[in-house]
Design the sequence.
């Protein structure tokens, strides 16, 4: 009886581990257009996703992020900082420095499941949306920042 219980628990743990591995494999960092050095002088806001493959919030907000990317293409500069591993974190740190966002990276580094909306000129965070959000929440923050530019 005890052996069956141990086998059942081990089987359940194995299934959970396999499911987690599959979910992580299906959650790569979103691809965004590269912000060129010339774009850094633009007044367009930055919309920054703090991502990690293992982040549950990142997994559940994938659809909302995709919708926002489609809706605001060409009107904001999308950036993804990936904290999945030491290598992706370092690459993101370098990218943040290249874009003049090193201070933002250091302040929010590792806060996966967060989307930041920054003023494109001052590069200051105007909205920090943490946790599970709908696309409408991201749109409202982006729209407010765009309206402030007018």
Sequence:
């Amino acid at each position: 009886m005890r052996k069956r219980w141990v086998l059942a628990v081990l089987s359940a743990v194995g299934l959970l581990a396999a499911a987690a591995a599959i979910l992580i494999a299906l959650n790569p960092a979103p691809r965004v257009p590269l912000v060129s050095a010339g774009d850094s002088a633009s007044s367009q806001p930055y919309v920054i996703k703090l991502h990690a493959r293992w982040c549950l919030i990142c997994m559940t907000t994938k659809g909302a992020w995709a919708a926002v990317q489609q809706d605001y293409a060409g009107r904001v500069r999308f950036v993804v900082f990936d904290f999945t591993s030491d290598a992706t974190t370092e690459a993101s740190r370098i990218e943040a420095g290249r874009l003049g966002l090193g201070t933002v990276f250091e302040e929010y580094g590792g806060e996966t499941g967060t989307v930041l909306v920054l003023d494109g000129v001052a590069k200051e965070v105007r909205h920090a949306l943490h946790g599970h959000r709908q696309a409408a929440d991201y749109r409202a923050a982006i729209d407010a920042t765009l309206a402030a530019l007018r």
The first helix runs from residue 2 to 25. Helices lie at 2-25, 56-60, 62-72, 86-98, 102-108, 135-149. The chain has six helices and four strands.
